[in-house]
TrEMBL record:
This is Periplasmic binding protein/LacI transcriptional regulator. Residues 1-25 form the signal peptide. Residues 36-292 form the Periplasmic binding protein domain. It comes from Caballeronia insecticola. InterPro entries: Peripla_BP_I, SBP_2_dom. Belongs to the bacterial solute-binding protein 2 family. It is found in: Cell envelope. One of its GO terms (cellular component) is cell envelope. GO terms for molecular function: carbohydrate binding.
Length: 319
């Protein structure tokens, strides 16, 4: 058929007959994301970052919330494998126990991206890349801040620690990094350490127990996230003490709630951990689909905010 005749035939054809011509339009990339839960202000910001960046990037996002349970995350990953999504991404609630499901993804030839939290596995072929913070360094920053603050104080300095979710990478690494620094001086003593599961409610409950057991002996609280610190602040106030003064408070994340607490003089310092991982994730997903190579580890750049800079920094905070 000559070109002019083709155009005439197309103009006369019913819409259905023309559909094959449009089938060349690119299908959007389908990304299955298995989120940890909604345990903290940080997590809410992380979810929002992933959802809005997917929309902006034109990626079809399938999203699930595991409510802090590993079995729910495994179920979600299996359902993404069954749906034959293009890429799976997840933030592992705990470090271990992922091999079986990740081998299933590998056998189905679906690339996996870890975001925020790492897994502990010898087999690095189970995922393409890990995008997120250096949690050990965050713990070290918290420790260094305390060492500097207490320079010249002979001690003892009694510390209570609110750990994150048991077995999670941030809880393990933030503890390790902090201890690595404070162990250089025996005046620092961790007298109590327990999980608060990264939530305000649990942070408050565990701090109440610490106060009951140790009372005025407590000099410092190290909380693995801001939410637990904010819960603990309430417990300290209810016990008739002044958070930020009677007890020095150090936490991690740098969420707006922590800045508000710092501006009120109730929290001494927050080590930044950025939840805004969405744009990086979407760009990595596109690179993977385009067959480009991506680095095995993408580390988020972060800072530390003592209460003295909180008011100046607050207007710049995005989460
Ligand atoms: O994995 C990141 C941690 O998880 C954040 O520090 C905490 O707030 C969240 O729940």
């Amino acid at each position: 058929m000559k070109r002019r005749n083709v155009l005439v035939a197309m103009a006369a054809a019913p819409l259905g007959a023309m559909l094959p011509l449009t089938s060349f339009a690119q299908k959007p990339i389908v990304l299955g994301f298995a989120q940890v839960g909604a345990e903290s202000e940080w997590r809410t910001a992380n979810t929002e970052s992933i959802k809005s960046s997917a929309k902006e990037a034109g990626i079809d996002l399938k999203f699930s919330d595991a409510q802090q349970k590993q079995e729910n995350q495994i179920k979600a990953i299996r359902s993404y494998i069954a749906q034959k999504v293009d890429v799976i991404a997840f933030s592992p609630v705990v470090e271990t126990g992922w091999e079986t499901v990740l081998v299933e993804a590998k056998n189905a030839k679906i690339p996996v991206v870890l975001t925020d939290r790492a897994i502990s596995s010898k087999d690095e072929t189970l995922y393409v890349t890990f995008i997120g913070s250096d949690f050990t360094e965050e713990g070290r920053k918290a420790g260094r801040w305390l060492v500097e603050k207490e320079k010249g104080n002979a001690g003892p300095i009694n510390i209570v620690e609110l750990q994150g979710t048991v077995g999670s990478a941030p809880a393990i690494d933030r503890k390790k990094g902090f201890e690595e620094i404070i162990k250089a001086d025996p005046k620092f003593k961790i007298i109590r350490s327990q999980t608060g599961d990264f939530t305000r409610a649990k942070g408050k409950e565990v701090m109440e127990a610490f106060l009951k057991a140790e009372g005025k002996k407590i000099n410092v609280l190290y909380a693995h996230n801001d939410d637990m610190a904010i819960g603990a602040i309430q417990a300290i106030e209810e016990a008739g003490m002044k958070p930020g003064k009677d007890i020095i408070i150090i936490s991690v994340d740098g969420v707006k709630g922590a800045f508000e607490a710092m501006m009120a003089g109730k929290l001494n310092v927050s080590v930044e951990c950025s939840p805004l991982l969405g744009p990086q994730l979407m760009s990595v997903v596109k690179d993977i689909k385009a067959g480009k190579s991506v680095p095995k580890r993408i580390v988020t750049q972060e800072s530390i905010f003592p209460m003295e800079v909180a008011a100046k920094e607050f207007p710049n905070r995005k989460y």
